[in-house]
From TrEMBL:
Domain of life: Bacteria
Record-annotated membrane-spanning stretches: none
Protein name per Swiss-Prot or TrEMBL: Ribosomal RNA adenine dimethylase domain-containing protein
GO biological process, one term: methylation
Length: 213
């Protein structure tokens, strides 16, 4: 079965969680993984790898260096990743468990977090906890890249996540829209987490301080 067919099948089983009908394009993936360093022994975390378009690009860039932890909640997709990418450490758990997942592997901090999670689909307190959890595991020089669909850019959930990203990081840069992706998408790159790795994430901002939506 092709990667697209595997992904489409999982979308039909769980559309909200899968959030996309087809895998990301190579153009989008290029931007998502741009922060993965070409030297050294980095710890790279990938969230929501799906069938693995970004996993393949990360593995190619790492070429056996460092660690690559791929966190995919969908067990069927996780099993597919284990088979396809023996060089990555695939974990069939939720991204919210990231601090514990790293601690279990004796890893204090990540150098890069690459996320294709449908972040604006996560609502309520759970949604609010995602960005702080990611920021809390990044090293001081770490980078978090997050993809987002361009059509949802102005929707309240996306604006709330972006406001949260700006609270958690000193620098947040948005890429241009990648039109060669279905649907068109962009990548946020966040640098310099305001809370050092290992420290508890700050509580979510009170409702009144959130970006108007
Ligand atoms: C929009 S797809 C992206 C898939 C792939 N990275 C790509 O770019 O084609 C989102 C992926 O996130 C996974 N996912 C959703 N919620 C998750 C969670 N809480 N923890 C880890 N993965 C999750 C889904 O199963 C799905 O594979």
């Amino acid at each position: 079965m092709s990667e697209t067919a595997v992904f489409a099948r999982e979308f039909l089983r769980s559309p909200l969680r899968t959030a996309s009908l087809i895998p990301s394009s190579s153009r989008l993936v290029e931007r998502l993984v741009a922060a993965v360093p070409e030297r050294g022994e980095p710890v790279v975390v990938e969230l929501g790898p799906g069938t693995g378009p970004a996993t393949a690009a990360i593995q190619h860039k790492l070429a056996g260096r460092g660690r690559h932890i791929a966190v995919e909640l969908n067990e069927r997709l996780a099993a597919h990743l284990v088979e396809r990418f023996p060089g990555a450490e695939t974990v069939a758990e939720s991204a919210w468990e990231l601090p514990r997942i790293l601690a279990d592997r004796g890893l204090g901090a990540a150098d890069v977090v690459v996320s294709s999670l449908p972040w604006s689909a996560f609502t309520g307190p759970q949604g609010q906890a995602l960005v702080p959890a990611i920021a809390s595991v990044l090293s001081e020089t770490g980078v978090y890249t997050q993809f987002a669909y361009a059509f949802a850019h102005w929707a309240p959930p996306s604006r709330r996540r972006l406001a949260q990203l700006r609270r958690a990081f000193e620098e947040v840069v948005a890429s241009r829209t990648v039109y060669r992706n279905l649907p068109p998408a962009l990548v946020y790159s966040a640098r310099r987490p305001r809370v050092p790795a290992g420290q508890p994430a700050p509580p979510a901002a009170p409702i009144a301080n959130r970006t108007a939506s």
